[in-house]
Amino acid sequence: MRTIGKFASILAIAALAGTAAPAGTWPERPVEVVIPANPGGDTDINCRIFLKYVEKELGQTMPVVNMAGAAGSVAMNNVKQARPDGYRALFFHSGALIGNIMGFTDYSVTEAFEVAGIPVIDKSNCFAANVKKPYDDIKELVAYAKAHPGEVSFGTESGSFTHLHILALAEASGADFNIVDAGTASEKTTALLGGRIDVIGTQYALMKQYIDKGEVKCVGILSDQRLAGAENVTTFADSGYDLVFDKFFYLAFPKGTPRAIIDRFNAVSKKVAENPDYIADCKRNFVNATYMAPEEAVRYINSQDKLYRKYEKALTGDQ
């Protein structure tokens, strides 16, 4: 019995050593970061900008794996089921909460993952329209939609953050829009440029080059303040609609990832957020460099979830 007890103790010590070692030396190899989006969209761009600076601090590469599909649930499930060893992470945004409300996932972000922080917040969420359409701001868009019920096609991705935006406007205004699943950010843009969609929910940075070329127009920012660098674009508040939705981007690891790894990443994130070059890169992209530690990030995500659930009936169709 003593031999068995001694052997069991050895196994327990070995197990503890096996879990502690990776945390103490992490990262010893590349850390894959899964993005629930195709290349070229805002999630992909914001992630790559952030990781460029994280890699310098960690001294290790962080290759991106693009994995779009099912309102982000394909990528989320992939990371959720990965080994909690710190070598696979998720970079996603507010849309994860919408997907959960709509049933694409059966778990919450803050309960199913180890949230490592929020490094980016985007206040440039906007509606972009075909330049030939007879509306230049949200007030005119709503008036036209009311005069032509079901005619204005709005491109979004089912279960996405922009899906929430159009439902919130429809509820606040009483206008009837033809909501179309036009795919990811890059796919929506292509549909808008091709004239297959009248309006899309997107981010200003993704539209700026097309706005400058006169190919599309931004009819409103989902904010109560004008966007720095695009002060000529009116807000939803300017048109009488108090709809403010900030898009947050978070990085998370599988549940059970050692706290030492989360703390290491958190420390690196703080350094990155204070880096003038990172701040400048974000500003050029019309987003805000942010540092939000794990505990604060969890509280913030849960508060946003509470806000979004005000539109649960509209999102689920349960009237």
Describe this structure in words.
By secondary structure, the chain is of the alpha/beta class. The protein has 2 domains: 2-121 and 247-316, 3-Layer(aba) Sandwich (D-Maltodextrin-Binding Protein, domain 2); 125-239, D-Maltodextrin-Binding Protein, domain 2 (3-Layer(aba) Sandwich), CATH 3.40.190.10. 45% of the residues lie in helices and 19% in strands. It is built from 13 helices and 11 strands. It has helices spanning 2-25, 42-58, 73-80, 95-101, 109-112, 138-147, 161-173, 185-193, 204-212, 259-273, 276-284, 294-308, 312-316; strands spanning 32-35, 64-66, 88-93, 113-122, 125-130, 153-156, 178-181, 199-203, 216-221, 247-254, 288-292. The strands form 2 sheets. A 6-stranded mixed beta sheet has the order 2-1-3-10-4-11, with helices on both faces. Strands 7-6-8-5-9 form a 5-stranded mixed beta sheet, sandwiched between helices. Strand 6 (153-156), helix 7 (161-173) and strand 7 (178-181) form a beta-alpha-beta unit. Helix 2 (42-58) packs across helix 10 and helix 4 (95-101) crosses helix 7. The termini are far apart. Mean pLDDT is 91; it is low at 1-21.
Structurally, the number of domains stands at 2
Classify the beta-strand content into a percent band.
15-25%
N-C termini distance:
65 Å
Question: Within the CATH hierarchy, at the fold level, what is the topology of the largest domain?
Answer: D-Maltodextrin-Binding Protein, domain 2
Give the strand order, joined by hyphens, for the main sheet. Answer: 2-1-3-10-4-11
3D shape:
globular
Q: What is the helix tally?
A: 13
The average pLDDT score comes to: 91
In helices, the fraction of residues equals 40-55%
Q: Under the CATH scheme, which class of the largest domain?
A: Alpha Beta
Structural class category: alpha/beta
Secondary-structure element string: HEHEHEHHEEHEHEHEHEEHHEHH
Mind telling me which CATH architecture of the largest domain this is? 3-Layer(aba) Sandwich
Low-confidence stretches: 1-21
